What does this fold into?
Amino acid sequence: MNITPNDQPTDEPQINPKDSDKPPWPSEVLAAVLNWLRHYWDAPRTKSKWTDIATVILTLLIAIAAFWSARIFQRQLNEARRATNITSESFRTDERAWVEIEPIKPTLFSPRTDKIGAAFKYEIYIRNIGKTVARDIQLRATRQGSQASIVMGDSAEALNWEQDKLLLGKVPTASDIPINNPVPKVLAPNTSSAVPLILNGQEPQYFPTSQWVSYLIGRVDYTDAFGVNHWMKFCFFVANPRGDLWNCKEGNDEDSNPELPKGAN
It folds into this structure.
């Protein structure tokens, strides 16, 4: 035991400077580790650790709930938009302009002769049967008609080519282009054109192996009150010596309604 300045004994061992460089005994290391573990588990941070875990779990649950709520909201928003689009499309379809061709009657232009068959004139009137105005109306057709085999009326490809060619302004001859098209640019609802576009045709010609007929091929392009472009294609042929017109098997078609207004995405 050591003697203090007050002559009191102490239990602390005297540290020998020479012993400071010696490594600790295994028992001392074990005692230090056990002492650290005892203080670690007894420390207040043990409760804090479980609190942190509970906070993390609660945060994850809140995030999952928020994500699920966002998905439900987005689904409801999409359904609302879809319903709005359907309603808007239904309204536009019901209220849009619809341009059609009125029934066509032949007018004898020249009777049949020994060298040529009877020729006829056909007055083409268009009518807006829709509920709103039709604008920018263009009626395109070859004035003299087209002479071709009767089987051409069964070819959708050939007729589409002819009708698209009219849209692009490319016709066989410049004389076929009606310079002063009498069709008005605007038609109010339930209104017909006041002046017709006159087309010509001839009675059928019969040959040993084929039959040639006169075709009246054309198209009508217009824009409705909602700014949507529409089109209607037509194809008729002179079916008999009386000049009656029959519909071609192909080439009579109208646009569908998914077209969007100008400038819409």
Notes: The longest helix spans residues 45-95. Residues 99-254 form one domain. The CA atoms of residues 77 and 226 lie 25 Å apart. The chain has two domains: 23-95, 99-254.
